[in-house]
Design goal:
254 residues; alpha/beta; TIM Barrel; 41% helix; binds nickel (II) ion
Amino acid sequence: MDFFDSHAHYNDERFLENRDNLIKEMYENEITNIVCSGYNLDSSTDAINLSKSFPHILATCGISPNDITQDVDKDVEKIELLAKEDKVVAIGEIGLDYYWNKDNKEKQREVFIAQIDIANKLNLPIVIHTREATVDTIEILKENLPVKRGVFHCCPLNQELIKEGLKLGFYISFSGNITFKNAKSEDCIKLVPLDRLLIETDSPYLSPEPFRGKTNTSLNVKLVAKKIAEVKELSLSEVAKITNENAKRIFEIK
Ligand code: NI
């Protein structure tokens, strides 16, 4: 089986020790593609460097809503340059986060839109981070619809958001959060048609059950796939195959 982890952060400091071996180990254990996602300038640069070192690593670059500093406008300009590198498959993660940052909502929206513009200029999809900002996220996407669309990464288990995202043509990527007890994820999983479904780990965060609280790795994308297989009444290999094909389609990987 080949699993595609559509979102992870091997650029996170928690992985600094021993990460080359860890990334190789993923490939040896059926994780044949991993998108390493940037969230600010340094992590985006690092993601690109990893993509150059490892054939199975792809990169995204972007400024996340939780990484908005005084220099953000200059940072966004630099993202446009970085995004021209070969293995950059999307602009992200970008979006709105009103859970962690309530005091700069206007700036978050502006930076989100500026980066959608970059994606359109470079003909790339976007990877969206959205938390407690459903209404504004959907409104921005409607008014600034990215030509290549993109992915709701670590999609919140919010049926309204999922329905609107699907209507606009986006893919829905589920992470370990669907395995949490009391998550009531089944109805959300059922909402997503098979051809719009992606799986991810968001490593090192969000370890699925039964590893909740521990450092996550891409190996656990299999547990996310297993949960989806149960709900969709498919085999694990069918979910692996479908999500692999979907990821290759949205990120335009040959
Ligand atoms: Ni992430």
